[in-house]
Amino acid sequence: MWMRTVLLASLGLAIPSLAQYDPSSSGYSVKTPPLSTDWTDKVGTDPWTEYPRPQQVRDKWQSLNGIWRYEAASSLDDVHSPPTGKGESFGAPVMIPSCLESALSGVMAEAGSANLSWFQTTFNVPSNWQGDNVVINFGAVDYQATVIVNGNNVTAHTGGYNRFWVEISEHVNFGEDNELLVFVHDPTDVGKQTNNPSHIFYTPCSGIWQSVFIEPVPKTYIDKIDLSGDMWGVGNITVHSSDNSFQSVKVSVLDENASTLYVGNGTSDTAFTFTVPNVSLWSPSSPKLYNVTVTLGDDSVDTYIGFRTVERGTVQAVTRPLLNGDFFFAFGPLDQGFWPDGLYTPPNHEAMVYDLQFLKDLGFNMVRKHIKVETDLFYRACDEIGLLVMQDMPSFNIDLLPNDEQQAQFESQLEEMVQLHKSFPSIYAWVIYNEGWGQLDRGPEVEITPRLQSWDPTRLVNSVTGWHDHGAGDFLDDHHYVEPQCGMANASGPSSPYDPDRIGFQGEFGGLGHNVSSDHLWNVPIAIAAINETYEIDKTIDEWNSRAHTVLGILESQIKDYACSGGVWTQTTDVEGEINGLMTYDRRVKRTIESQWKSDIQALYKAAAARGGGDGIGPASTANDTTSSTVLASQPSESASSAGRKAEGGGVPGMFFGAFVAATFLSCFDNRYLFLS
């Protein structure tokens, strides 16, 4: 089963990675970062051994993570003359996965210097894979990647966050070494990450920053699975085949004891439903997951499902978010996912989970994943721990508006993000625009929102978080520092008029600063100089906690008195020149007084419960429970899980074909935020 497979991987029992150079002689070493973490020295030379794709697990696979080689390219034309056959004379050692600008890479390139890069390794395809197709998978490459195997250009992909994959069988030699080259173009100096990081703008990430692996598959294989479950025990699945062959597929649902709860058949490339009786529902308090095995011909993969329904409804005449029929007050931090040693890439899986468990232990039930899309393992951890995720679409630049071509690519990248992540039960809402960054005056979210709801009718849509609200989506989302103004009609401005028919939400607030000793600061002069730009800075941790208690008390009163249905505290950790985290950037200082924060967060949930809500972390319930809430839209015929929309369109999207396209550089558009698939 998938859980056993993933557990073995997490224990280091997966098929080992094929770092092709003896680490002792490769010359690789971790550079000294401006700030380290407790995991910096634990990276080793065989990183991220966990199975990278937890929702589509195969028994046979081979990690390509480890020590590769890197050298700078001089122009875009270099892609037409790949430097094949150079072996260990190829450039310098580099850790994969990593950001080139990070200490973990072993390169630690200066911001703006890694725009054009070559990455090289060799790998051996086991001879017993002969007769199968071989697929190579990339978790994420920032930004434009051209993949070359044994001198053959096999694919190009554009977009810095989403995974992509391609068959390479006809280009590899079985039982022998094969050369892999990846040409990466990363035009960096636009957007949240720039060549001149300061305050809310950070060091960029270039290169292969998520895992790479190969796997054998049959001639016709499972290419992708869309899977969701609802509060009535109804599962909705589409099994996409590699050749759109409309073959018979078998679906088995099992419990943690491997007892079969459901077995049924359907047809690939077509949505079908199944029902599992008396399932336990997924919620933050009871993050119940069920193992699922899917078989198509000679291919079989393990995945999992959580049964839960997210929708918009009314409770006591107030518009609310509903989880499994109950009003839930979602409360969590803004989570940017930066690391002082790895930037976008956490030093290891343990470090990544540490952040999430810290938040869960304080009583948070949600994170807002801000302007970054994480590795699939992040969302699996949220599924398992029980943390809801409000997922941002990475943004354009603050003051740069897109032209028509760029806007079309933004929307294409948004669709890819949704299509590749919509099977994670922890994700409960999508964010299209943050604070108007790259948002055209005409309000394109009005047209985008119903399309997004048709791609994924099982979640809420936060069309605009912050301001410039044109009335689309499920949320009326306000940003205000330091103190909140959540769900208040008298706090709405001309750019975001009050709308009682949508969910009142405090998309950002808090942001309280506290300076610490230089041992815990990002030791870069421009970052140190930016510290005073923090909204408020308290001198001591006690003062910081006292002020936080006051601010959270204000939010509690707004829950009691107004239509406030959730909030996002800025932020999980310090990031470079920002010192307003619940923890310092190195994760070594927790500013939070645990007992106080637990009490204050529980007070928010209790205030919501008094207004008809659940306990804040969601009731542990079973399918077919009845509720007293009113859903704001009728259920589409495809699945009961589609309830709760005030949207046009619906149904189940067809197979998503936009995984691989030729790399195209738009010089004025942020390399991180195009998501061109």
TrEMBL record:
Q: Does the keyword Membrane apply?
A: no
- Domain Glycoside hydrolase family 2 immunoglobulin-like beta-sandwich, which positions? 248-308
Q: What is the residue range of the signal peptide feature?
A: 1-19
Cite the residue spans of the region called Disordered.
616-646
The cross-references to InterPro entries, in alphabetical order and at most eight, read:
Beta-gal/glucu_dom_sf (IPR036156), Beta-mannosidase-like_N2 (IPR054593), Galactose-bd-like_sf (IPR008979), GH (IPR017853), GH2_Domain-Containing (IPR051913), Glyco_hydro_2_cat (IPR006103), Ig-like_fold (IPR013783), Ig-like_GH2 (IPR006102)
The protein, known as: Glycoside hydrolase family 2 protein
Keywords in alphabetical order: Glycosidase, Hydrolase, Signal
Q: Which residues form the Glycoside hydrolase family 2 catalytic domain?
A: 350-469
Family, according to the entry, reads as follows: Belongs to the glycosyl hydrolase 2 family.
Start-end of Polar residues biased regions: 621-642
Query: Care to name a GO molecular-function term for this sequence?
Result: hydrolase activity, hydrolyzing O-glycosyl compounds
Kindly give the Pfam families that the UniProt entry links to this protein: Glyco_hydro_2 (PF00703), Glyco_hydro_2_C (PF02836), Glyco_hydro_2_N2 (PF22666)
- GO biological process annotations for this chain's record? carbohydrate metabolic process
Ranges for the Beta-mannosidase-like galactose-binding domain?
A: 118-199
Which organism's genome codes for this protein? Cryptococcus floricola
Looking at the keywords, is S-adenosyl-L-methionine present?
A: no
